[in-house]
Design a protein that fits this description.
The protein has helices at residues 2-15, 19-29, 35-64, 69-91. The protein is flat. Helix 2 packs antiparallel against helix 3 (35-64). It is an all-alpha fold.
Length: 92
Amino acid sequence: MKAFLAIFLSVFFAELGDKTQLATMLFAADGRVSRVTVFFAAALALVAATGLAVVLGAAAERWLAFLPLKLIAGGGFLIIGGYLVFEHFAKG
């Protein structure tokens, strides 16, 4: 249960305010589209994307077992963050 809660909270907070949620809000704001349709389509898309992430993560475990996953994820976030900071100041 501890792992479930940690995964749930991590993914839940990571998804808040991201592009996926904003796109879903825009679809829900369109009066011509049923909100039930928006909910189920978005939920199915997130389930499919999560399924793909789990399959790829399980496959990557074989090749990346020598590196801690936190190191890989942290490095990726640092690279993306550094790029965004650079872009901000480069554009003035």
